[in-house]
Amino acid sequence: MLIEGFRSGVMERLGPGPDACLQTKPRLVCGRMAVWGRDGPLAQAPGHDVNYISLTGTLHAMGRAGEAPATPLNLMGAFGNCSLYLALGVLSALLEARSSGQGQVVDAAMVDGTTSLMTLLYGFLAAGYWKDERGANRLDSGAPWYTVYETQGGKHVSIAANETRFYREALGVMGLKKEDLPGHQHDQAGWPYMKQRIADVFKTRTRDEWVRLAAGTQS
After folding, report:
1. What angle do CA 17, 20, 24 make, to 5 degrees?
2. Can you say whether residue 9 is alpha, beta or left, with left for phi > 0 and alpha for psi between -120 and 50 degrees?
3. Under DSSP, is residue 141 helix (H, G, I), strand (E, B) or coil?
4. Which of 124, 131, 146 has its CA nearest to residue 194?
5. CA 44, CA 182: separation in Å to the nearest integer?
6. How far is Cα 215 from Cα 140, in angstroms, rounded to an integer?
7. Distance (Å, rounded) from C-alpha 187 to C-alpha 151?
């Protein structure tokens, strides 16, 4: 197995490329990872994680309402998609070579992997279930029951009460009742008030106190 670097054509420029190697050893599996893909106007351009998650629109979706996009760790681009996709492709090719005796070249591009991971959210957007705005949706800090809050003492806790039963349990931990908040859980018109009310509640205790209160719950 051979693994190529980030820029297209590295193996070819340094010496025999995959085609020549496969002629010598047909069972060989060659894995090639590139930022922008094997061809196109950016094929030979350098890049880093934040560059290609920007081009795919992924970066645009991250951050809070009214703020600039939040630059994530490079888990989303370099490690979370391209490396994973290349590893899966190479393993599949190795299994194929073991049974058929025929190796192959596996190509993976970081920009393609990032786009693939966004498929679900792009589908939500096309279906009208997702807004093309940061911090306005149920999984991007827009929902008051799926975000991070500051506690007394300046530390933070996360809340992920997405499902109705978890939402009810989270309210219980916070000492709130449904009638204390406007509308129902998914009524976005009431989210701003709900978020402020919950923020005020979380500031009444320290992070460690909230952790103890929530121990054993599913909120």
Report:
1. 135
2. left
3. coil
4. 146
5. 54
6. 25
7. 25
Q: How many other β-carbons are positioned within 10 Å of the β-carbon of residue 16?
A: 12
Confirm if 78 and 33 have CB atoms less than 8 A apart. Answer: no
Q: Which helix (H) or strand (E) holds 34?
A: strand 29-34
Ramachandran class of 135: left when φ > 0, alpha when ψ lies in -120 to 50, beta otherwise? left
Beta carbons within 8 Å of 194's beta carbon, 6+ residues apart: 144, 145, 181, 182
Would you call 117 helix, strand, or coil by DSSP?
helix
Residue found under tokens 């096309």: 126
Beta bridge partners of 156: 150
- Contact indicator for 194, 144 with CB cutoff of 8 Å: yes
Residue with tokens 């599913």: 218
Q: At what angle do helices 119-126 and 110-117 cross, to 10 degrees?
A: 50
pLDDT in tens, 44-82: 887 788 888 998 899 999 999 999 999 888 888 777 777
Instruction: List the one residue out of 20, 34, 36, 22 whose CA is nearest residue 93.
Output: 22
pTM (two decimals):
0.79
